[in-house]
Write a structure and sequence with these properties.
Elements (H helix, E strand, L loop, with lengths): L1 E4 L2 E9 L6 E5 L9 H12 L3 E6 L1 H4 L8 H19 L4 E6 L1 H8 L1 H4 L3 E5 L14 H5 L4 E7 L14 E5 L10 H12 L12 E2 L1
Parallel strand pairs: 3-4, 3-5, 5-6, 6-7, 7-8
Antiparallel strand pairs: 1-2, 2-4, 2-9
Length: 207
């Protein structure tokens, strides 16, 4: 699915299911894609809970760039994508999230998107080479419930438990969260379950 934004087209991979319990919209880091191991693990959990999942390749990555550019423009493009997806899925609860830079976008736009919650994977607490500068304010300002899943060996730091609704720290994991993706899914599953009172259903239908 292609969604045109003011910053160029975004590419969205959809897993839909009839009468979804919630819509989970996930995105990548600055230099990654939507097939990252942790994103796929969370996708599987969401589908198992009867949710629909949209994995968004943001315009800068669809254009082949590695740097997201202006946060203001990046966030505006994200909200354009969210608007189109909301029209498609109606008023089901929206949970948005991503890994690394994508987690930052999800936090910064949560209020404007009217999201029910945020899944922040490998949240990059400190910029590269600047360990004294913290981005914890992005977590705290999200305005919705935020689940953080980070590795205890993440070179970009690990948020404090007071910075989010819940912070799960996985032993042995670095920033990629690819050593044990199943553990990432297990960390997210009980948190996503709060947005559905329905029994789990088989995996959704890719489109």
């Amino acid at each position: 699915m292609r969604i045109d934004t003011a910053q160029g087209p975004a590419e969205v991979t959809l897993d839909e299911t009839g009468d979804p319990a919630f819509l989970l919209v996930l995105t990548h880091g600055s230099n990654g894609g939507v097939d990252a191991a942790d994103l796929l693990a969370v996708r599987e959990v969401a589908l198992g809970l009867g949710g629909a999942v949209a994995r968004v390749l943001q315009p800068f990555r669809a254009a082949g760039r590695r740097a997201p550019g202006s946060p203001v423009r990046q966030d505006a493009a994200w909200l354009e994508v969210i608007g189109v997806l909301r029209e498609r899925f109606g008023d089901v609860p929206l949970v948005q999230g991503g890994r690394s830079n994508g987690a930052r976008v999800a936090c910064r736009t949560a209020r404007a998107a009217d999201a029910a919650g945020v899944v922040a994977l490998a949240f990059p607490l400190t910029p590269p080479g600047k360990p004294d500068k913290s981005r914890a304010d992005e977590l705290r300002a999200a305005g919705v419930e935020v689940l953080v899943v980070n590795g205890d060996r993440d070179p970009f730091g690990v948020p404090e438990r007071a910075d989010a609704t819940e912070v799960v720290v996985l032993p042995g994991e670095r920033h990629d969260l690819d050593r044990n993706p199943a553990a990432v899914g297990a960390a997210v599953e009980p948190w996503l379950r709060r947005w559905t009172a329905r029994a789990p259903v088989p995996g959704g239908r890719p489109s």
